[in-house]
Every structure is written in C-alpha cells, then in structure tokens.
C-alpha cells in the first residue's frame, strides 16, 4: 500500500483496492475543486478582518480556467488569494523498490587531495 501511495504521489484515487467512501474522504489538494475552495473562503471572509491567504491548486491550468477562477474569487468578495500551485510540466519517472539497486549511483572514491605536508605540492607551500 505504501508503495502505491508513493507511486501515485499520495493520491488514493487510482488505487482500486481502496473503497469509494475512503476515496471521497481523502483527496489531495489538486483533486479538490478550486471553485469549492473559493466558495468556502467567501463564506469565511465575513468573519475575517484582513485577507485570508488562500492557496489555489490546479493540476492542468489554462488561461480560461484561471480567468474564470479569479473572476469567481472577485465576484464572491475575496480580498486576496495567495499562491496558485500547479503540477510541473514534466513528471519524474516513477520507480519502485524492486529496481532501486539498478538506478543507484555507484559509491564514489575518496576525493583525490594532496596532503598538506607534501613538499612537492605548489598549492600547499
């Protein structure tokens, strides 16, 4: 199970053996609809004197999605948003525990350095 969670970056949604009620309960920040976050923040805003630092998460951002999202935040009366977090354009290749020895770097040799007591070394004199 822990290897599956590592492979899927902490998301339980693609793991088939997890029941649907648990999948609905445990979602990563990128799996929660940003419109819902804005709606919840707009309801909290009534009791906040200053601005709330609301982070928004989008797995696949586009200009239209961003425009719609920030217009919704403005219409709902949010004073500010904080960061817009997105997934990287490229993802690192996933590896599992079975091939970690194949991909591991070889042990390096001790660094080649001269002894400070070497009378022939120009840098040490």
Protein described:
- Keywords: Oxidoreductase.
- InterPro entries: RNR_lg_C, Rrm1.
- Residues 10-84 form the Ribonucleotide reductase large subunit C-terminal domain.
- The structure is a single chain.
- The protein has 125 residues and is mainly alpha-helical.
- Among the domains are: 1-27, no CATH class; 32-90, no CATH class.
- The chain contains five helices and two strands.
- It has a two-stranded parallel sheet with strand order 1-2.
- The longest helix is centred in the middle third of the chain and has 13 residues, at 63-75.
Number of distinct helices: 5
> Structural class per helix/strand content?
mainly alpha
Could you tell me the strand content as a percent range?
Answer: under 5%
Q: What's the N-to-C terminus distance? A: 59 Å
- Uncertain runs are none
Mean pLDDT: 82
Cα shape? elongated
Helix amount: 25-40%
What's the arrangement of strands in the largest beta sheet? 1-2
Rounded to an integer, what's the Rg over CA atoms? 25 Å
Order of helices and strands: HHHEHEH
The count of β-strands is 2
């Amino acid at each position: 199970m822990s290897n599956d969670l590592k492979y899927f970056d902490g998301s339980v949604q693609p793991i088939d053996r997890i029941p649907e009620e648990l999948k609905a309960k445990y979602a990563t920040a990128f799996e929660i609809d940003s419109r819902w976050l804005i709606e919840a923040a707009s309801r909290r805003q009534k009791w906040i004197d200053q601005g709330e630092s609301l982070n928004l998460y989008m797995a696949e951002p586009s200009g239209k999605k961003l425009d719609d999202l920030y217009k919704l935040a403005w219409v709902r009366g949010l004073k500010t948003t904080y960061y817009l977090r997105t997934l990287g354009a490229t993802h690192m290749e996933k590896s599992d525990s079975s091939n970690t020895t194949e991909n591991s770097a070889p042990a390096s040799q001790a660094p080649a350095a001269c002894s400070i007591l070497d009378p022939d070394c120009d840098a040490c004199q």
